[in-house]
User: Which sequence fits this backbone?
């Protein structure tokens, strides 16, 4: 399907690894321009070079997103280079072990800043350009926002807040025709997920236990399946979808996991 996003400029935070990388590739495959934002220099420039070798336009901005001034620079640099921002995909962040018992107030606040603050910063600084383009925002949340996980209070709180902000922004931005939606993954194999699995004595056994709890196909959701939903949401094919939480998880959250 031609999503009709050719030449659109789309910012993807955390866009060089895991789900973000898959989103960036899907954007480029559709003829749009991914603005890859992140703090991992090697993977960012490597992905940009990959796109260039394929004859596709892409831009990488290296920065630490937890600082508001850096997010402002991302928006300004993108607009200065391309003259437009058509969509913002807030994706960067990672699960942690800042629980109630295992964490402390300082670590909890740090987790919120690391996983949540830049969603607001990026949306705030991209807003004027998004008004001009009647663009859209997609926030990548997590099933931990609605199911809990244990031992991850900071991350779960941030992901829950992202869902709340999705609805809040969808309402506030209605007058500008800016759509705001969230995609909620559950079990997706990413570098961070692999790192988490490796913390168990028997990673393969743990992985099999997880797969058994995913109703549709008893398999992990792929990064590409998340990416296809995200890119669809920023396209005109989703022109009357806003304020929604789209669960791309094989039924993990809403169906009986005993199936």
Assistant:
């Amino acid at each position: 399907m031609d999503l009709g996003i050719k030449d659109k400029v789309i910012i993807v935070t955390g866009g060089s690894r895991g789900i973000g990388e898959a989103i960036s590739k899907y954007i480029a495959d559709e003829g749009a321009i991914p603005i890859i934002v992140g703090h991992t220099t090697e993977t960012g420039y490597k992905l940009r070079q990959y796109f260039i070798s394929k004859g596709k336009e892409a831009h990488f901005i290296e920065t630490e997103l937890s600082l508001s001034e850096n997010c402002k620079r991302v928006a300004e640099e993108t607009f200065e280079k391309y003259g437009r921002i058509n969509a913002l995909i807030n994706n960067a962040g990672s699960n942690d072990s800042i629980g109630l018992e295992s964490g402390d107030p300082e670590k909890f606040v740090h987790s919120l800043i690391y996983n949540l603050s830049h969603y607001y910063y990026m949306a705030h600084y991209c807003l004027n350009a998004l008004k001009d383009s009647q663009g859209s925002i997609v926030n990548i949340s997590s099933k931990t926002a609605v199911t809990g996980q244990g031992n991850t209070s900071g991350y779960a709180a941030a992901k829950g807040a992202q869902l709340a902000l999705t609805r809040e922004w969808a309402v506030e931005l209605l007058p500008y025709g800016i759509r705001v939606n969230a995609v909620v993954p559950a079990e997706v194999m990413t570098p961070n997920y692999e790192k988490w699995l490796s913390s168990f004595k028997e990673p393969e056994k743990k992985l099999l236990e997880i797969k058994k709890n995913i109703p549709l196909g008893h398999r992990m959701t792929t990064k590409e399946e998340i990416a296809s939903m995200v890119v669809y949401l920023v396209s005109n094919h989703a022109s009357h979808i806003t304020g929604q939480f789209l669960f791309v998880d094989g039924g993990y959250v809403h169906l009986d996991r005993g199936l």
